Amino acid sequence: MTEPQEEEIDETIVFSASTTVISHIHKALKSIALVSGQASLTITAEGLQFSVDDGSHACQAHLFFKRDLFSSYQFNPAVNDDEEESWFVTTRLSLASLNECLHIFAGPSGNRAATDGSAAGDFHEIRATSTCRFVYKGRGSSLIVYLREGRNLSTKCQLSTFESTGAGFDELDENSIELVKEKLVQHVILKANLLEGHFKELDDLKTEVVSFIGSSMGPQYFNIKSIGQNKNESTFSFPNDKSVLETFVILKESDNADEPTALPEPGENVIVSHSYQFESIRKCRPALELADRASIRCDHNGTMSIQCMCKVSDAEGDARRSFIDFRFRARE
Fold first, then answer.
1. DSSP for residue 127
2. What are the backbone angles phi and psi of residue 93, rounded to the nearest 5°?
């Protein structure tokens, strides 16, 4: 695997990175655009995080591009001239505009739109020589996206940025959906296409409320229950079989609120159930279509994370991963 190269440090800019996996970046960004057309961008030495909120704070998504997804990566937070040195820089931008910019090279099927007079809907594969470079000079400046294919075709997009109201990478403001990892009560890992297929069926059933139910002793270990129009109910059950559920863990809360959750005692059946508006849950379907595996985690408050783990291969066949983490608040 090719490690991202450190460019000669340009002390006049905060961030610069180049990549050839334009198609995946475009599809991943589009997959969180269902939540909101506005995003917070957080830049660290480890990579990029795009975060979106649905406005009601019931659904949020965080898209992580690790730095190994880029062939070169430069981060210099000191350019912002903060009084204290920071390990991250956060700004806000129009996700819709960024996606429109990337659409120039990555059409609906992840291919560059034809620019040579060919018929509409006719696309060319992105070549191995196609590159995308992001440049951000610091607070108040635009995010600049350079797109280049070969030697002859290049495009420059400038996207306005705005002062972020969020607290930044891994820091929670009053509206962030926080998953309390020490208080997890359910953790499931399964194939992403299996989960997406069930969500598609829930869509077809015009589901309004969906419940995720786990039982530590079965016989139906993991269940997704749908309540649709006219209060019609349907339940999909998953056996605790490694060919279906790669990981299945149910934890119980302690009588001491300060202690973390723990495994049930032998012979003890612990049932966990939380319900959500399906209108929010369905927004993760495009991300599941990109992923090969999905991780579902719920804490004691019913806060749920559906993390989509996406395998990315470049022109050289190197496999890397990006992560799309959807967070949901349970119905009150």
1. P
2. -155, 170
AA identity, residue 103:
H
Question: What distance in Å separates the CA atoms of residue 313 and residue 148, rounded to the nearest whole number?
Answer: 20
d(CA 323, CA 321): 7
- Domains of the chain in sequence order: 15-108+128-162 (3.70.10.10), 184-328 (3.70.10.10)
The first and second tokens of residue 85, run together, are 């040195």
Sequence-ordered list of residues with C-beta below 8 angstroms from that of 317, at least 6 positions apart, any chain:
none
Residue entry with tokens 């050839």: 20
- Quote the CA–CA distance of 302 and 282 in Å, as a whole number: 17
Strands of 29-152, DSSP E:
38-44, 47-53, 59-66, 72-75, 88-94, 112-113, 123-124, 131-136, 143-149
Tens-binned pLDDT, residue by residue, of the chain (332 aa): 444 444 445 667 899 999 999 989 999 999 999 999 999 999 999 999 999 999 999 999 999 999 999 999 999 987 565 545 567 888 999 999 999 999 876 654 444 443 333 333 333 344 556 899 999 998 889 999 999 887 777 889 999 998 765 444 333 456 789 999 999 999 999 999 999 999 999 999 999 999 999 999 877 799 999 999 888 899 999 988 899 999 999 999 998 888 999 999 999 999 999 999 999 999 999 999 999 999 999 999 999 999 999 998 765 556 788 999 999 999 97
CA nearest 57: which of 161, 160, 165, 163? 165
Angle between helices 95-103 and 22-32 (to 10 degrees): 150
CA–CA separation, 73 and 134 (whole Å): 10
Phi then psi for residue 120, to 5 deg, are -60, 140
What CA–CA distance (Å, rounded) separates 131 from 233? Answer: 49
Give Cα 22 distance to the centre of its chain: 16
